[in-house]
Write a structure and sequence with these properties.
By secondary structure, this protein is an alpha/beta fold. It has two domains: about 30 residues; about 190 residues, Flavodoxin domain (Rossmann fold). Helix content is about 45%, strand content about 15%. The chain is built from ten helices and six strands. Strands 1, 2, 3, 4, 5 and 6 form a six-stranded mixed β-sheet that branches. A hairpin with a 2-residue loop joins strand 3 and strand 4.
Length: about 250
């Protein structure tokens, strides 16, 4: 009997808490009281795709992304390390095929990634550093993936971050290039405790970069926190940011 009473008191406290939260959000009465049950009904595993833009499937970039994935998994967040492969067939040629067909005309990993992205909640894009920039394949991959989904909500409002791996230098230049993709696509950028980089020429060297690995874990913690807050806001029926119709201002006019 005491156990049943304790359960009912706990349920009552949950209900009162839901009503209080609902009141603060402008949700009243029975609608607010439904929040706990709605949470149970809508609860689903969140997923983050970690894109490996290295020509090596399980090299230094993979090692860094694996550290992120392991921490996300501790938060019950599903992860997938998506290797772009070595068959990226070139960059965007501005043919507008994707505008009419909702996919890139090149038959490589870009289209399969975009299909997975539609069902994902967050993204980590990883690349080795080549001449103080992301790998050529990774840059082509990102340009085509984001451009081919332009005008859609595949990436909008989904958190993202970049991770780079280098032997010694050029990392901040590569990060800066990759980080340009997220704001223009309406994606919140996930921070860490330092720039998201690891150092090493081989995976075993990366594993010795203790600060770099900690940066990866902190990034994962911040990603998990951000995803959980977005999910909580969605359950509380907070509206998404208002999206205005695009306004274009050309500097050169005829």
């Amino acid at each position: 009997m005491e156990k049943a009473d304790a359960m009912s008191r706990r349920d009552a406290l949950k209900m009162l808490g839901a009503v209080a939260i609902g009141s603060a959000l402008g949700i009243k009465g029975a609608q607010a009281a439904e929040i706990p049950s709605r949470k149970q009904e809508e609860k689903k595993a969140m997923k983050v795709i970690l894109v490996n833009g290295s020509p090596h499937k399980k090299g230094c970039t993979f090692t860094a992304l694996s550290e992120v994935a392991a921490t996300l998994n501790k938060h019950k967040i599903e992860t997938e390390i998506f290797w772009i492969g070595n068959d990226i067939q070139g960059g965007c040629i501005a043919c507008d095929f994707c505008r009419k067909n909702a996919r890139c005309f090149r038959p490589d990993s870009v289209n399969s990634f975009v299909e997975k992205a539609k069902l994902s909640d967050g993204f980590i894009f990883g690349s080795p550093v080549h001449y103080a920039a992301p790998s050529g394949s990774m840059l082509s991959f990102m340009i085509r993936a984001f451009f081919s989904t332009g005008g859609s909500d595949v990436f909008t409002n989904k958190p993202a971050a970049s991770v780079v791996s280098c032997r010694r230098a050029g990392s901040t230049g590569a990060l800066d290039t990759m980080n340009k993709f997220y704001p223009i696509n309406g994606m919140p950028m996930v921070p860490s405790q330092y720039w998201n980089m690891v150092h090493g020429n081989r995976p075993e060297e990366v594993r010795q970069d203790l600060e770099g690995l900690q940066i990866m874990r902190t990034l994962a913690e911040k990603m998990a926190w951000m995803l959980q807050n977005i999910a909580a806001g969605r359950l509380a029926q907070l509206p998404a940011p208002t999206k205005e119709a695009p306004v274009r201002t050309n500097f050169i006019r005829s």
